[in-house]
Queue: 3 jobs
Job 1
Amino acid sequence: QVQLVESGGGLVQAGGSLRLSCTASKRSFSSYSMGWFRQFPGNERELVASLLWRSGSTQYAESVKGRFTISRDNATNAVYLQMNSLKPEDTAVYYCNTNPPLRNLWGQGTQVTVSS
């Protein structure tokens, strides 16, 4: 069974940076668009960044544009989210998945907490 494993979250002060990683077992995502999503308590997951694997083209939510960068590593089948200039309102659990997401691919996510 394919698993997506997110890592790299943590506690950081406002203005700081974190780099999230997403690795997948048993599957290549070269035919997919991949996304990073986040979920605030009591809310639905929202898409913050997406990447079309083959072309490398990217899209971002307005709230993170200019601060977050999604990228991929073809050799390791990994997807990354570089988050700079973090704000307290970025505090959430972050997940990766295909875009649109596949229900059976949701992982545990990684908690990002930004203190003011």
Job 2
Amino acid sequence: VQLQASGGGLVQPGGSLRLSCAASGSISSINVMGWYRQAPGKQRELVSTISSGGSTNYADSVKGRYTISRDNAKNTVYLQLNSLKPEDTAVYYCKIDWRYGLGPRRVAWGQGTQVTVSS
């Protein structure tokens, strides 16, 4: 299973970006899909998750500014980032909790996409 993340870039404060992460490979089902981020010198932190049923969860720091969504037919998770702040600068990683057939649940991480918020 591979995750391909895209959509990062350089944006001015107040700007917007949309991140995408597409999963490919032998996947029967994906439970939780999510986004994490890691800023320089800091630990990786949870940004947002979305369950297979559509329930969402957000870090307090991004509530009201970020929106997570998913397209189950495409095994893809999205993260809309609005009203970006310099402190949102980080490498953003996607993560999925997936299963193939009756096998065990497994976790896969994407390679990360850089988001830089600067004037």
Job 3
Amino acid sequence: QLQASGGGLVQPGGSLRLSCRAPRMITNTFAPKTMAWYRQGPGKQRELVARITGSRTTDYADSVKGRFTISRDNSQKKVYLQMSSLKPEDTAVYYCNDDHENYAWGQGTLVTVSS
């Protein structure tokens, strides 16, 4: 139900913008919902990276503060993750969901940070 895209291979220090769409959610459901990006690195557990409330209050994991920015477009039912100054440790499959993980996990999008 939630479709993440935009991943790829990037060099350390580079940038990527991830997108998440929720085509089956109606706008009145999506707009007030706190949405989040998660990631799961190799051999690691899935972790919360960033979240954004319906009023666009944001918070971030300490590991990405100052480098990642989450945003949303309610009219298109999309959530974005702008990632800058990427590090090899950011390598992971990135997923979106709401902040209570209520939706089925999609395939995610793979981000590989490597020279």
